[in-house]
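Lay summary. Proteins are chains of building blocks that fold into shapes, and those shapes determine what they do. In this project we predict the shape from the chain. Here is one chain we studied, written as its sequence of building blocks.
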Amino acid sequence: MPRLRIPWALTPVLCTLLLVSCRSTSGVNTFRGTHPIPGTGWETNRLSAVDAAVLAAISSNRTPGAVLWMEHRQQIHAVAFGNRAVVPAVEAMTVDTVFDAASLTKVLATTPAIMKLVEQGRVDPARSVSAYIPEFAGGGREGITVGHLLTHTSGLPPGLSRGEPWVGYDAAIQRACREALVETPGSKFRYSDINFILLGEVVHRASGLRLDQFCAKEIYGPLGMRDTRFLPLPPGATTAPDGVDLGRIAPTEKLATGVLRGVVHDPTSRRMGGVAGHAGLFLTASDLARFCRMMLNEGTLDGHRVFRPETVRAMVAVHSPPGLPRRGWGWDIDSPYAGPRGNRFPIGSYGHSGWTGTSVWIDPFSQTFVILLSNRNHPTEDGNVIALRRQVGTLAAEALEGFDFDHVPGALAPEPAVR
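And here is the predicted shape, written in a compact code that computers can read:
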């Protein structure tokens, strides 16, 4: 049976915690990260309900496996369930599995990159996108600001057409700059990959670095996120770069050309070469946990400052126009996509999800975050963890000891139905 591997960055936190492994009666492998002492944050008996929800999803074939990471004030419950691969051979899931983050790229790469450039005075959310990408002009596009892109209120359609024979990063940017508006900017919330494809190019134009290069230098390196990267398997390559273990990467869909492993699942990102503002990032739960701790610490981790406190606060404040679903800069707060919040975490907490079965939700009020990483579209798109995300979010909040979610000072009040 595979052993639970403790990521180097978490050794100081985890070395005092009991690590055990077991096999469930259903035949699903589970690797339990921690069993906290009663009274320190998690109610142990309620943690079993969260685990059971994930096991049920696996048993009903909604995902082949998953990694759950729940953390409250350094009290960690980290568990690997099921299998990370079922074809061409079965492989057990491990806590250090690397996942295709899909749209988590939007908030773990593109949004923080933009906000770092805001800090540096090189990007202004209030400025027109055309100030950074001059060819993004005409047809009303001059009225679209960087802030519109970040809140999905640009008026652009959901995605680039893949029906025509375009390929390459530059071709995608050219197409994005020609997309016709379907609404007036600021008038409606419409989740759109095009918004973040353009934001990735804003990072490129403003910094002179590709999005992956900028993030590695300014974010992942300083945070010690050693398994987080774009392009674990570069286009056309048959072997991974030094330091990348393809065997730890959870595969996604089985296509006619084979199973995708280390290659981004998102078709548009694949056409763009694997580095794009909307999808393409790969990471582990432990790396994502480091990012979450930094956010809860308002920009610092292990004594190193990555963002100013006001930058983090701005990132997760509501910036949507009144009457529209509430979004921060990149982050979801209270929209139709906020399922991972569950039914108990307060409005004002924030998170995001990804197509491949990934999600994260961070609650600054209770100092808690919940990470659920899965490859629900392996080997086919039949898997579905939408309901599981909400269930895990609800059960995680209920597993917290001594926090009154019915009375949370500073939380936002519910709003009437929004457009």
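What the prediction tells us: Residues 44-59 form the longest helix (16 residues).
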